[in-house]
Amino acid sequence: MTRIAEPLVLIVDDEPAQLALLSYNLKAAGFRVATARDGEEALLAVAEQGPDIVLMDWMLPRLSGLEACRQIKASPAGREAAVIMVSARSEESDRVRGLDTGADDYIVKPYSVAELVARVRANLRRLRPVSAGQVLEVEGIRLDPDSHLVSRDGESLHLGPTEFRLLSAFMERPGRVWSREALLDRVWGRDICIDSRTVDVHVGRLRKALCARGAADPIRTVRGVGYAIG
């Protein structure tokens, strides 16, 4: 059985002890982990690896965490990542400034590692519900990531691994139009070099499976852009 890849958390901190502590605990909690030691390195890691969550320390060399957060949220690779700002700055004005810059959450040091992991999971449930094990339902289609089962109007459907991941992406963001390039990154991964027309082939297979019993096609083709459900 092919599983959805574990969520990737990018930890950005210039303190080696903090990087080691957070890396250990997040890996133990089932996450993949990448690290960066300054704001500029964080921007490069986001562009190259496309993390789901960014744990961003405020006080960083070369580029502050605040400015790195702003640039991440303005970038194509980072705009859908959840940025959690981590800082010793505890004043309300600091929290407001961090959130106004684009951070999705704000954690004040010192913090409980258990709480931090819980906050990561909470942001992930909002961002990638399939990775958090949530069952999705859109237009009569039901997808259960834990059992790897898909049904439509109560009838079980058989999908290949790639079609399952495609459907997961569509159903996590109903109404969002996915470009072929975005689907390649999300479904196949950034390290795989394949033609974007491969997306069309697998979308065709997914459509065939979803419409096998004469149901209406739920996938919209947006000419010159990509595909969407809902």
- What string, H for helix and E for strand, traces the elements in order? EHEHEHEHEHEEEEHEHHEE
CATH class call of the largest domain:
Alpha Beta
Poorly predicted regions:
none
Distance between the termini: 27 Å
**The CATH superfamily title of the largest domain:** Response regulator
Helix percent reads: 40-55%
Biggest sheet strand order reads 2-1-3-4-5
Envelope shape:
elongated
Question: Could you please describe the fold and organization of this structure?
Answer:
By secondary structure, the protein is α/β, with parallel strands linked by helices. The chain folds into two domains: 120 residues, Rossmann fold; 94 residues, Arc Repressor Mutant, subunit A, CATH 1.10.10. The protein contains eight helices and twelve strands. It has a five-stranded parallel β-sheet, with helices on both faces. It has a four-stranded antiparallel β-sheet with strand order 6-7-8-9, covered by helices on one side. The longest helix is centred in the middle third of the chain and has 15 residues. The radius of gyration is 19 Å and the shape is elongated.
What tags apply to this protein structure?
230 residues, alpha/beta, Arc Repressor Mutant, subunit A, 2 domains, 8 helices, 41% helix, elongated
Give a brief description.
By secondary structure, this protein is of the alpha/beta class.
